[in-house]
TrEMBL record, chain A:
PROSITE patterns: ABC_TM1
Protein name (record): Multiple sugar transport system permease protein
Tree of life domain: Bacteria
PANTHER family in alphabetical order: ABC TRANSPORTER PERMEASE PROTEIN MG189-RELATED-RELATED, LACTOSE TRANSPORT SYSTEM PERMEASE PROTEIN LACG
Source species of the chain: Isoptericola halotolerans
Family statement drawn from the similarity comment of this UniProt entry: Belongs to the binding-protein-dependent transport system permease family.
Domain annotation ABC transmembrane type-1: ranges: 107-297
TrEMBL record, chain B:
Main localization, broad class: membrane
Domain ABC transmembrane type-1 per the UniProt entry, residue ranges: 93-303
Subcellular location: Cell membrane
Stated name of the protein: Multiple sugar transport system permease protein
Protein's UniProt keywords contain DNA damage: no
UniProt entry tagged with the keyword Cell membrane: yes
Family membership noted in the UniProt record: Belongs to the binding-protein-dependent transport system permease family.
């Protein structure tokens, strides 16, 4: 690509041209075109070379950490970061990370928060989308505007004041702090549901209403099941976000027993300060579930992120 | 997804255009006015409680010298704001943002480049796409540790440099002149994949006929980029630029995890967190948060002016 953008200047070929400036330009273009068959392979080589460099940049930092996780303490101290471990079956560091490092607790807490917050988000999000899309009522625009405006407020800025509210509700240092914040401040999910719901025909609602169904039944029995693809998207996008979240658990759940994956891993830096092989094992433990999820759900992750990130 | 969203506008237009007449309904007429609110009680309650009340409180705190505990909040006028813009210790954090801002533009350029070349026919395209994108999904703390390992003295980077004969590499995180560059580069590594996937999605949603027509006309790859791809993804570029700018002001995780703000790497958000939760200066911290919020709103407003609301629909 770069080769195409900056074509090597071709030797001027004789060409009948009008003005001197335009003439040079035309000649250059003609030269480039004549070089085209030659330029192709160069451009293609440059393209693949740049892709390989990008892959190396993405993978080398991860690979060396992965290798370090299998090294013994002595081996780590004496070997180069780029040399593979002597034994790929040395799992001692993972055991240390899991048990002493408290990663078991971290995964447990993250799972609890993940499940409850996802259920909450789905209920809140689908209810909001249903109310806003299927009813005409005074204040509808105001409600929409309130949700829309809130997307502009970056959560990171308001934590100073949110902290007081969470504290005032008595939720500080409980799992509920994270659950409530993940559930209550997620506007992107609402948009994903809203967008999807607009594609569900209203004639379904109307038919059900003629059959005597009330609004709650319509929501629970008709709309909710039809939203399943959108729910899957929200579960994936939001699930990854919750799994990776550091700021909220760090701020609201400082207790050791409430460590989630991120905060537990962060605490590795103290006690295991110089034991890079154990820290590496901890990092690998955290990355592997993400890798598995990515390999299984690639398509949904790509499309979910595109619909979430741009709203 | 675009098939889903085209009836959307129709439905929305219908909903707003028609006066609120009675849809086919049964039961007493008042019921349908209350029902939507029953569905909205919980969502609106949470929205107000965790977004609007904090914003309002934050503005209020910012004019006081509150320590986070005292029952009285002593008003101090604009003192907190004056301090942010006059105290060099406070103001210097804005300069740190510039590193991340530069990183953000590098990140957008790289993402655009890789999205473009992968939109042309490429062998094992999904393999490349997956590898370039994957870092974005990784837990931020894990990324911090991975790069502490990568950048530490005698770490991966130094070992790589030794291979090409650099015997005495600098301290990537210990040297204040380099620390911010190292951290901003880590940030580029982390977030480039997202921009890349957004750009690639937008490029691939450009109708294929345009490329075919261009091929018939004998267009070069550069011409295809200049006249088909670039105009087709203008909106996404605008949007991601704004996200990148506000993101570079709101950097927290990577410097917090990797250096804790040492060696001149304190960012605006780290400073805010420290003022509030370590030094108990909630008034000052609130004022800082208000300033950040106003900057983000300003940037968003500018974006809306430059890229007026043509519908951004990537999916």
């Amino acid at each position: 690509m770069t080769a195409v953008q900056n074509p090597p200047r071709a030797e001027g070929r004789p060409a009948p041209t009008p003005g001197p400036f335009e003439g040079a330009w035309l000649r250059l273009r003609r030269g480039v075109r004549q070089l085209h068959p030659l330029l192709g392979p160069v451009a293609i080589t440059a393209k693949y070379a740049s892709l390989v460099v990008a892959c190396a940049a993405a993978l080398i930092p991860l690979t060396t950490v992965f290798m370090a996780a299998f090294k013994t303490k002595e081996e780590f101290a004496t070997s180069d970061p780029l040399t593979p471990p002597e034994s790929w079956t040395n799992l001692d560091n993972f055991v240390t990370a899991f048990i002493q490092g408290g990663m078991v607790r971290g995964f447990l807490n993250t799972s609890i928060i993940l499940v409850v917050a996802l259920v909450g988000t789905i209920i809140i999000g689908t209810m909001t989308a249903y109310a806003v899309d299927r009813f005409d009522f005074r204040g509808r625009r105001l409600v929409m505007g309130a949700f829309l405006l809130a997307t502009l407020v970056p959560a990171v800025t308001t934590q100073v004041a949110t902290f007081q509210i969470v504290n005032g509700l008595g939720l500080f240092n409980t799992r509920w702090a994270a659950i409530v914040l993940f559930t209550g401040t997620d506007i992107i999910s609402i948009y994903i549901f809203l967008q999807f719901m607009r594609g569900i025909s209203r004639s379904l609602d109307e038919a059900a209403m003629l059959d005597g169904a009330n609004r709650l039944t319509i929501y629970a029995r008709i709309i909710f099941p039809l939203l399943r693809p959108a729910i899957a998207t929200v579960v994936i996008v939001k699930g990854i976000a919750i799994y990776n979240e550091y700021y909220i658990p760090f701020l609201y759940m400082p207790s050791r027993d409430l460590g989630v994956v991120s905060t537990s891993l962060f605490r590795f830096m103290g006690p295991f300060g110089a034991q890079w092989e154990v820290i590496s094992a901890g990092a690998v433990l955290v990355i592997v579930p993400t890798l598995v999820a990515f390999l299984l759900l690639q398509r949904q992750i790509y499309s979910g992120l595109t619909s979430g990130a741009t709203k | 997804m675009s098939t889903v969203s085209s009836p959307v506008r129709g439905a929305a237009a219908r909903a707003t255009a028609t006066p609120p007449p009675a849809p086919p309904r049964r039961g007493p007429g008042r019921g349908w006015r209350v029902t939507p609110w029953l569905f909205l009680v919980a969502p609106l309650g949470l929205l107000v409680l965790f977004t609007y009340v904090p914003v309002a409180n934050m503005v209020w705190y910012s004019f006081t010298s509150w320590d986070g505990m005292a029952p009285v909040k002593e008003p101090v006028g604009l003192d907190n704001y004056t301090r942010i813009f006059t105290d060099p210790d406070m103001f210097s954090v804005f300069l740190v943002s510039l590193y991340y801002l530069a990183g953000a533009f590098l990140q957008l350029a790289l993402a655009l480049y890789f999205a473009t070349i992968l939109s042309f026919r490429t062998r094992v395209r999904n393999f490349f796409k997956g590898i370039i994108f994957f870092p974005y999904l990784i837990n931020g703390v894990a990324i911090g540790l991975v790069f502490l390992f990568f950048l530490r003295p005698g770490g991966t980077l130094d070992a790589l440099l030794a291979l090409v004969g650099v015997a005495e590499p600098p301290q990537w995180l210990g040297n204040p002149d380099l620390a911010n560059i190292s951290l901003a580069s880590t940030s580029v590594w982390r977030y480039m994949g997202l921009n890349f996937v957004l750009f690639l999605g937008a490029i691939q949603s450009i109708p294929n006929e345009l490329y075919e027509a261009a091929d018939l006309d004998g267009a070069t790859s550069w011409q295809k980029f200049r006249f088909i791809i670039a105009p087709g993804i203008k909106q996404v570029i605008g949007l991601t630029t704004i996200l990148a700018i506000s993101g570079s002001l709101a950097v927290f995780e990577i410097p917090w995890i990797m250096t804790g703000g040492a060696n001149g790497t304190t960012t605006f958000v780290i400073q805010t967190v420290q003022q509030a939760f370590e030094f108990k200066k909630f008034g000052l911290a609130s004022a800082m948060a208000v300033v950040l919020l106003l900057i983000v709103l300003l940037v968003t407003w500018i974006q809306r002016r430059i890229f007026p609301d043509e519908k951004v629909d990537l999916t």
